[in-house]
Design brief:
By secondary structure, the protein is mainly α. It folds into four domains: 2-65, no CATH class; 72-154, Recoverin, domain 1 (Orthogonal Bundle); 157-270, Orthogonal Bundle (Recoverin, domain 1), CATH 1.10.238.10; 272-366. Helix content is 57%, strand content 10%. It is built from 18 helices and 13 strands. It has helices at residues 2-10, 21-30, 72-88, 93-100, 110-120, 126-136, 146-153, 156-180, 184-191, 201-214, 222-232, 242-249, 265-268, 273-284, 286-297, 307-322, 328-336, 352-366, and strands at 34-39, 41-42, 48-49, 51-53, 56-58, 60-65, 198-199, 240-241, 252-253, 258-259, 304-305, 339-340, 349-351. A three-stranded antiparallel β-sheet has the order 11-13-12. A two-stranded antiparallel sheet has the order 1-6. A two-stranded antiparallel ribbon has the order 2-3. Residues 29-72 and 255-263 have low confidence and may be disordered. Keywords: Calcium, Repeat. Residues 88-123, 124-159, 179-214, 220-255 form the EF-hand domain. This is EF-hand domain-containing protein. GO terms for molecular function: calcium ion binding.
Length: 368
């Protein structure tokens, strides 16, 4: 009779003859009890065994103590199991959230959350599911929006790896443009067919492909090129303008394959009006400057010069136009496009003919 009354208290009115495991566990998890019981075992002959403890013969006693499901350990364990399941899915976090959000209104209700969690087969009760939802529903409004969902389940380590990979690809592209297209700005202007300081996605594809072909490397796949384009296209208007381009590649450090968000004189100066004015003046004074380098090198055929020699050849000419504003760092940036790449670790040398030709080309491309 007592067992019957207990059963009737536990089952629901709409299902008096059966009880699922969730409801069964929910009742016992809700209990708070502590006690002891004698535990005996039967041997293969059906005889009762006793356990000897410190020379005495007595039945073993077991202490039963509930551990409430509200404990922080339980919270972290179940939440971590759910994170692992979601991280292992081939679907994006947005797609998984939409599966939780059955009616598509942008929020996951308690009923929707219960249905979704039970599909994962975690074997937890309705009360435990409610507690799990409370952990995710940080503002306590009884529903979960995408921001709350993402804050618990977004894989930050994955996002970090993707950001690093994108930065490396951007640095690689700048390196190829500097090596084979003079500079990032020169590459942009070459593929700016309309000469309106903008390039389309098709133009960008041609630029990236050409840069890799000149380096005898396989061009990246379409999705990678599209990701690069989207990273540069800050305005999200489907076009890359010169300002977006310069802001992006001016922040890419050469040689380290990583984005530097701290702009430096050396990395951003080539986007300045001063740099552009020097380039135009060098193009217009090409004959004068060629003669200066020939006299300084004491040769009509030698082209290579060191930084000190270049500074000596241009020092008073630059001073007459710009005063003392052209520092050594700016001068190195000016020479860099004409650097002669050498295998041995010796003092860098630059080709003055190439430097003057580059600035002549810049004047023709960009206009007077």
């Amino acid at each position: 009779a007592e067992i019957r009354r207990l059963w009737q208290q536990m089952v629901s009115a709409d299902s008096p003859d059966a009880m699922d495991k969730y409801r069964f566990r929910e009742h016992f998890e809700a209990m708070s009890y502590k006690g002891t019981s004698s535990v005996g075992t039967l041997n293969s002959l059906g005889q009762s065994n006793t356990i000897s403890l410190k020379g005495s013969t007595q039945k073993s006693r077991t202490t039963i103590k509930t551990v409430t499901s509200s404990s922080s350990k339980w919270d972290s364990n179940v939440l971590e199991r759910l994170r692992v399941i979601i991280a292992a899915s081939t679907k994006s976090l947005e797609e998984i959230f939409k599966e939780f959000d059955e009616d598509g209104n942008g929020f996951v209700t308690l009923v929707e959350f219960r249905n979704a969690i039970r599909r994962f087969g975690l074997g937890i009760t309705s009360r435990e599911i409610d507690q799990l939802m409370q952990k995710i529903d940080t503002n306590g409004d009884g529903k979960i929006d995408y921001q709350e969902f993402a804050s618990k389940f977004k894989d930050n380590s994955y996002e970090s790896r993707m950001a690093t990979r994108a930065a490396n690809r951007m640095a690689k592209l700048k390196e190829l443009m500097n090596l084979h297209m003079t500079s990032a700005n020169d590459a942009f202007r070459f593929f700016d067919v309309e000469k309106d300081d903008r390039i389309t996605f098709a133009d960008f594809c041609k630029l990236v492909t050409k840069a890799h072909e000149l380096a005898s490397e396989k061009p990246p796949t379409y999705p990678i090129i599209k990701d690069l384009f989207d990273n540069i296209d800050v305005r999200k208007d489907g076009m890359l303008d010169l300002h977006e381009w310069q802001q992006t590649f001016g922040r890419v450090e050469q040689g380290n394959s990583r984005i530097s968000f701290k702009t430096t004189e050396l990395s951003m100066w080539e986007n300045s009006r001063e740099f552009e004015r020097i380039a135009h003046l060098m193009a217009k004074n090409r004959k004068l400057l060629s003669e200066r380098f020939r006299q300084m090198l004491n040769s009509s055929t030698a082209k290579g010069f060191t930084f000190a020699q270049g500074k000596e050849a241009l020092d008073d000419w630059l001073y007459s136009h710009f005063g003392d504003s052209i520092t050594d760092a700016k001068l190195r940036c000016l020479f860099n496009a004409a650097k002669i790449h050498q295998e041995s670790q010796v003092e860098p040398k630059y080709d003055y003919v190439r430097m003057l030709d580059i600035n002549k080309m810049r004047l023709q491309t960009h206009g007077n």
